[in-house]
Amino acid sequence: MKRNWKLSIIACLAALVLLLSACTANNSAGGSGDGEDGEDKKILRLNNGQEPTSLDPPEGFDSASWVMVNNLMEGLTRLDESHQPQAAMAESWEVSDDGKEYIFKLRDDAKWSNGDDVTASDFVYAWKHMLDPEQAYQPAFLAYVIEGAEAYNSGEGSADDVGIEAVDEKTFKVTLTAPTGYFLNLLTNPAFFPVNEKVADENPEWFAEADTYVSNGPFKIDSWSHDKELIMVKNPEYWDADTVKLDQVNWAMVADRNTEYQMYQSGDLDRSSIPADNAKELMESEELVTEVQAGDQFLRFNVQKEPFTNEKIRKAFAMAMNRDDIVEFVRGIGEQPARGFVPYGFETPGGGDFREENGDLVQDDVAEAKKLLEEGMAEEGWDELPAVTLTYGTNTENERLAEGVQSMLSENLGVDVELQTVESSVFSEEQTKLVYQLFRGSFLADYGDPVNFLESFTTESSSNRTGWSNEEYDKLIADSKTQTDEAKRFEMLMEAEKILMDEMPIVPLHFYQHVYLQKTNVKNVIMHPVGYLELKWADIE
User: Fold this and answer.
1) Entry's InterPro entries (predicted)?
2) Which of 41, 60, 407, 508 has the smallest CB count inside 10 Å?
3) Homologous superfamily (CATH) for 293-514
4) What average pLDDT does the structure give for the chain?
């Protein structure tokens, strides 16, 4: 059964299937320890899966970093329990009649964990830092809705021309290139969080260690043993500290799902993902929680490497997949097959669903796949298909998927595919250099609008990583961002998706959903569809 949810009210890009939260003390899940005045401390224990890439907001643009940054920091707006953007560092704002100018009033009690005031200058500093072309931060493209941002980030403009201004200490002005209905959603993305300008000027590596990290969110860092454990504690300087019920959050960094599940069973974790080998039995567990997630898993072709320079061969590989088998037997956690790139759940102006209205744009059709493969090889003059290698980042889930794809291509097309596993950090870096031929990809929404998925494959997007380029596609995406008629904007996005799926630089496989186990005494841990784990309202009973 398809899950529809109003993604227009949520915000903010990446795979958080490995995001886990758990609580124990004295080897007992959901436990407590001695606190001040003899009171018990509420300690929540989580598994982040790995060391965060970076806790500098614009640099840590991935799921391993976002979940921590989202609980340490806060932007102008924050997603609430219903996934709607609400006032956060900004207590209020005004929007001009033409929808292009926002004036945010920061809270008088907005403080950093070291006691400094959070100021409008902190936002100006952070956003210009994100856009600095010398830094080449991946999420910079998200800010292109701001006047002058793209020109500065591309090296063709000045930082002084970016449409952001500290009017005074607590007033922050933003000028957009065009009305942007999802702007308040966009601002909940960690890339738009402030940075304490004074601290960063004194120590450019302020974000690298526990004793130098300065936060403005519900929690602050107490200790950090790299690659092993990070401990957060409640931030007493946070403006809404009275809402925060947890005293402490302990993050483990365990990559293996089987180990994680064993920790959950033994009481060392109170929240765990589901190992593939145990999926069938655990899907019936009373502790199972299933939630919507805006993202999908897919394969990227490098269209500059043979044999995927040929469009028909790309389509043959895409049509040789059995997506129903992938979600049932390879994944096994109740997800939906993906026959387009934009997931279910994005509401159209007419009240429908983007995915349903744009339909299935790729078919599972073995007979047609064989025909296209033959035609593509004939076009290239190949009697034998060039060798194919499928590359993926090292972990058991990726391996299981790769083996499933390998089996389907062998059985349905008679193509032998070699598998190559690469350490995750290396894999991420080399994708952008177009090193690989065929490789696993995944996408989690950065904010709540379908353009976020589709803009990833424009020619200049850092998320493209396929070598594919289409002028008509680029123009549709660019024009959609200045189109104020929502019905016309969605028509542009649907047409763009059809082009993407027709030329097939990627192979959609399945849409994600959050599926995990959680102990019953852990309450109000919020998993936003865009992937952020939210602990502001979490509690342990």
Assistant:
1) Peptide/Ni-bd, SBP_5, SBP_5_CS, SBP_5_dom
2) 407
3) Dipeptide-binding Protein; Domain 3 (3.10.105.10)
4) 90
Q: Which residues pair with 444 in a beta bridge?
A: 295
Model pTM? 0.78
Render 442-459 in DSSP notation, one character per residue: EEE-SSSSTHHHHGGGST
Establish how many alpha carbons lie within 13 A of residue 333's alpha carbon, considering only the half-sphere containing its beta carbon. 25
Residue 290 pLDDT grade (very low, low, confident, very high; cuts 50, 70, 90):
confident
Question: Do 44-254+519-540 and 293-514 fold alike per CATH?
Answer: no
Single-letter amino acid, residue 203: N
Cα 458 to Cα 265, 315, 356, 455: the distances in Å are: 45, 20, 23, 5
**How far is Cα 497 from Cα 318, in angstroms, rounded to an integer?**
15
The domain limits of the chain are 44-254+519-540, 293-514
- Strand pairing category for 288-301 and 438-444: antiparallel
- Provide the pLDDT for residue 252: 95
Between the alpha carbon of residue 61 and those of residues 58, 219, 336, 402, 462, the distances in Å are 6, 19, 26, 25, 12
Helix ranges, 115-267 (H): 120-131, 149-153, 183-186, 197-202, 257-266
Contacts of 108 (CB under 8 A, 6+ apart): 170
**Phi and psi, residue 286, nearest 5°:** -70, -20
DSSP reduced 3-state for 262 = helix
**Residue 29 host element (H or E):** strand 28-29
End-to-end CA distance of the chain: 33
**Alpha helices (H) in 233-278, listed in sequence order:** 257-266
State which H helix or E strand residue 405 sits in: helix 396-413
More confident residue, 408 or 25: 408
CATH fold of the domain at 44-254+519-540: D-Maltodextrin-Binding Protein; domain 2 (3.40.190)
Q: Which of 481, 320, 335 is nearest to 397 (CA)?
A: 335
Which pLDDT tens digit goes with each residue over 202-213? 999 999 999 999
The DSSP call for residue 38 is G
Q: Is 193 helix (H, G, I), strand (E, B) or coil?
A: coil
In angstroms, the CA 89 to CA 108 distance is: 9
What is the C-alpha R_g of the chain?
23
- The predicted structure's pLDDT at residue 26: 35
pLDDT value of position 33? 53
3-state DSSP assignment of residue 349:
coil
Contact 465, 441 (CB under 8 A): yes
Q: Which residues are CB-contacts of 498 (< 8 A; sequence separation ≥ 6)?
A: 358, 361
Q: Using one digit for the tens of pLDDT, what is the confidence trace for 331-379?
A: 888 889 999 999 998 889 999 999 999 999 999 999 999 999 999 999 9
Which of 15-29, 118-132, 173-187 is least confident?
A: 15-29
Q: Is the pLDDT of residue 451 over 90?
A: yes
List CB contacts of 199: < 8 A, sequence separation 6 or more. Answer: 112, 114, 116, 206, 212, 214
